[in-house]
Specification:
The complex is a heterotrimer of chains A (117), B (99) and C (501).
Chain A: H1 2-28, H2 35-38, H3 57-72, H4 76-81, H5 83-86, H6 88-110
Chain B: H1 2-21, H2 25-49, H3 56-86
Helix pairs in contact in B: 1-2, 2-3
Chain C: H1 14-32, H2 40-59, E1 62-64, E2 69-71, H3 73-91, H4 94-99, H5 105-124, H6 128-146, H7 153-184, H8 189-199, H9 207-225, H10 233-240, H11 243-268, H12 279-302, H13 307-327, H14 331-362, H15 373-376, H16 378-392, H17 398-416, H18 421-449, H19 463-481, H20 484-493
Antiparallel strand pairs in C: 1-2
Classes of the chains: A mainly alpha (117), B mainly alpha (99), C mainly alpha (501).
Chain lengths: 117, 99, 501
């Protein structure tokens, strides 16, 4: 129980510090809003249009390819954890698995799915 | 144990409801993911509390995650096709065939 | 054969491994070769399927990967069917390739091969995890193949419908599986059986959860089998998808659902019954589904004007006939199911191949555009008529024998067990629906042969499609007159499943 108590104290102190600094800066900073200040920050340029617009389709293709390869890595984790006991067979299997993944990315590349058309 | 199962059941019901009522295809996909994740929680919870020997439940959950990702990717690809064909992804668009 | 890592017995998996590698070979070949390489990719695929069949014959029965992978009689029988379905689907796809999918041949064939691999894994699995993976590997490529005409709205629509239904059903199934795992403590079907015998899960405490899990599993597999009330996707998908894909779906996906059903419900769970529920009641539940499928499929097929939709409803009805064999839950019942599926492979793939040939020529799937075809291409019309009559179950053809064995197996069980009047009712309804079925099959034949006008088309099939049609006709005629080899093959599968005394 005592460990949890210390965690609680940490949480309280952490929140307290953040709240305190915000409050302090609110009290001592000058208050002078004007139009350019209220805009979204876009590298100091005047932003064009609304930020709620439809993204280009092409982003989704990249996102799709990313999702596939991203999630397949999940199988690497248990393999890495148990690697010591598994021996050669698991290594060969994992190499084959990764080769197949490589084939996938190679195929997407060759087919031009990674090109920004 | 009960809480895990209850959480899974809630997720599953939300997903089921979403699949059946959503108009937006992306919404349907998201609801499907909820349903898969409900099964995941079940598997892991059973593995932790009831079937304590072996890791079958956790491995099963991992496979579900991977397969669901593949499924979602394919679904999104088909959604892209829908967008290309109809300029919108609501379910009313693609209801040409009946009976 | 000498294999590395003998403890895993990888050689029993050789056909599947080969098929998967071949899919990669096909896709790379198409990628690296010139834009339009004629039909080489297709022939390469056919060659690969033939080799896989050969390997399947060589490896023999045995277990690999612990208990995860079993090559027994059931598995081999279904693998033969799946390879046959893949072969005939590829054979009937050449025309489509030439016209519509010129730049994506490799992907199409690779997806088809991967789906076949999934089906073959499924038929070898003895365990919930591998059943799930097999089903997913079967269906995920099929989603993509259904939506393969990227600019055809019907095809994309069928793709998304199939996708949503398919993913939904597997979510249901996997949720049900999680409860089975929790209740029995294992994902292995054999160990689940042991758990059932030991604990006798009953209504009341945990039994209700069990029932819920079983309903979800049944719904999930019912979707794949397109059994009513889970059938609505089938006609839309069959109509919109490319015709070879629809053909592959009708036999392959159905077979996959069937083997999963047999493994989980007939083999794995037959020991599960509560005091209120005799083992016989399993049969009754399946029987109700079967009756619904037969009636609904056959009645709705009558009003269709699109031949692919008609075949879709007919395939729903055929699934009903197949499930009747399951009702018996006996060795002869399972054998008749196997026989039915084998004959169905020839007749249905043949019919779809004929439709594909006609569609490639005319671009139409309407029944009325078949009018007067017998005058210009009598041979083609006769072939089509043979397939349709076999599906309807007219005596000299194999379809009749298939239906006969299915019904006979149920009558046989009904005679031996008490309180089985509902089985006779079911057989009666089944026979009645075949009359409806005859009506719509004969309608197509009537349009082709007895229409006053002469058709403007003269059918010319590419060589592989001709071969597929020939295989179909020979299968239907030969096994109608001489069914013994298939019957023996099919009887073998019952030795690998376990049944009630």
């Amino acid at each position: 129980m005592s460990e949890y108590l210390s965690i609680l104290i940490f949480i309280l102190i952490g929140t307290g510090i953040v709240l305190f600094t915000f409050l302090l800066s609110r009290l001592i900073r000058p208050h002078n809003p004007y139009h350019a200040k209220n805009l979204n920050y876009e590298c100091a340029e005047e932003p064009v249009g609304n930020s709620w617009f439809q993204f280009n389709n092409r982003f989704y293709i990249f996102a799709l390819i990313f999702v596939i390869f991203d999630v397949e890595v999940i199988f690497l984790f248990p393999w890495a954890v148990a690697f010591g006991q598994l021996g050669l067979f698991a290594l060969v299997e994992m190499v084959i698995f990764i080769l197949i993944l490589f084939f996938g990315i190679f195929y997407a590349w060759k087919k031009g799915a990674l090109k920004w058309v | 144990m009960f809480y895990y199962l209850a959480l899974a059941a809630m997720l599953f019901s939300i997903g089921l409801f979403g699949v059946l009522t959503r108009r937006n295809t992306i919404g349907i996909l998201m609801s499907l993911e909820l349903m898969f994740n409900a099964a995941n929680i079940n598997f892991v919870a059973f593995n932790k509390f009831i079937v304590t020997d072996g890791l079958t439940g956790q491995i099963f959950a991992m496979f579900i995650i991977a397969v669901a990702a593949a499924e979602a990717a394919l679904g999104l690809a088909i959604v892209l096709l829908i967008y290309r064909n109809w300029r919108g992804i609501d379910t009313e668009h693609y209801n040409v065939m009946k009976w | 054969m000498d294999f590395p890592f003998p403890e895993y017995n990888l050689q029993y998996m050789l056909p599947e491994i080969f098929l998967f590698v071949w899919a990669l070979v096909v896709i790379s070949f198409d990628l690296l070769s010139k834009r339009n390489n004629g039909s080489t990719t297709g022939y390469l695929t056919l060659f690969g399927i033939a080799i896989a069949g050969l390997l399947l014959g060589l490896v023999g029965n045995g277990k690999g990967f612990g208990k995860m992978f079993i090559n027994d009689n059931v598995a081999v029988f279904f693998k033969v069917i799946f390879l046959g379905a893949a072969f005939m689907a590829v054979g009937s796809s050449f025309g489509v390739m030439q016209k519509k999918i010129v730049n994506h041949r490799g992907e199409f064939y690779a997806l088809l091969l991967m789906s076949t691999t999934g089906m073959m894994f499924l038929s070898s699995s003895q365990e919930l995890l591998s059943i799930y993976l097999g089903l997913e590997l079967t269906t995920i490529p099929l989603f993509a193949m259904a939506a393969f005409y990227k600019d055809d709205k019907l095809s994309v629509e069928s793709g998304i419908k199939y996708f949503i239904i398919g993913a939904f059903s597997s979510a249901l199934m996997v949720y049900g599986m999680s409860f089975l795992y929790g209740l029995t403590g294992s994902t292995d079907l054999a160990q689940m059986k042991v758990a059932f015998f030991k604990t006798h899960l009953q209504f009341g405490d945990m039994g209700i959860v069990m029932i819920l899990a079983l309903i979800m599993l049944a719904a999930g597999i019912g979707f794949k089998l397109a059994l009513p009330p889970f059938h609505q996707w089938a006609p839309d998908v069959y109509e919109g998808a490319p015709t070879p894909v629809a053909a592959f779906l009708s036999v392959g996906s159905k077979g996959a659902g069937l083997i999963a059903f047999a493994k989980i419900f007939v083999d794995g769970l037959y020991a599960y019954h509560s005091p209120d529920m005799a083992p016989n009641d399993w049969g009754m539940l399946i029987g109700i589904l079967a009756i619904a499928a037969m009636v609904l499929g056959n009645v709705l097929a009558i009003r269709q004007t699109n031949i692919k939709r008609m075949l879709a409803y007919s395939s729903i009805a055929q699934a009903g006939y197949i499930m009747i064999g399951m009702v018996a839950l006996s060795a002869s019942g399972i054998a008749s199911v196997g026989f039915y599926l084998f004959i169905y492979l020839f007749a249905n793939m043949g019919a779809f191949a004929a439709v594909a040939v006609f569609e490639d020529m005319t671009g139409s799937c309407q029944i009325k555009s078949y009018a007067g075809l017998a005058r210009t291409s009598p041979f083609f019309s006769a072939v089509m008529a043979v397939f349709l009559l076999s599906l309807a179950g007219i005596p000299p053809l194999a379809g009749f024998l298939a239906k006969y064995y299915v019904f006979a197996s149920v009558v046989d069980v009904a005679q031996r067990s008490a309180d089985s009047s509902w089985m006779y009712w079911m057989v009666g309804i089944g026979l009645l629906t075949t009359v409806f079925a005859l009506f719509y099959y004969a309608n197509v034949i009537k349009v082709m042969f007895f229409s006053p006008e002469t058709s403007p088309y003269k059918v010319e099939a590419p060589l592989p499609a001709k071969a597929v049609l020939a295989i179909g006709v020979i299968g239907v005629l030969l096994f109608g007159l001489y069914p013994e080899p298939i019957l023996q093959f099919a009887t073998g599968i019952s030795s690998s499943l376990h049944f009630m005394p």
